[in-house]
Amino acid sequence: MSDTARTPLLDEQICFALYSASRALTSRYRDLLEPLGITYPQYLVLLVLWEDGETGVSGLGQRLHLDSGTLSPLLRRLEAQGLVSRRRGSADERAVQVALTPAGDALRSEAASIPERICEATGLSPDVLTALTEQLGGVADRVRAAA
Asked: Could you tell me the fold of the domain covering 11-112?
């Protein structure tokens, strides 16, 4: 059998390496976020709001690569928890703005140690982790552009 005809091996597939790493990291995030009462996807929404401040739902979707069908239930749950507020835009009622509540803003300090704890869990230095994050972002961008 020639090399070109051999069956691909699972451990040689980038998709599996990324999937496995993502599941492991998400599990670690879940453990760290549980005491805060939020899920990993909710944490991602809060990260954007902590970074950017009040943001439109469409902007959140673009930043997180999520469609409104996925994002809307997340925002409803965050609003029910008192962490964000949503309001219709005054110029365009179809546009919905999302803002942190004081409780959502206060959660930022409680979550401040999470990136460091994730870095420790990876066993990578902060510089190596930053470079890997940038590389993976580039890979994701190129794959989305190729689709």
From this structure: Arc Repressor Mutant, subunit A (1.10.10)
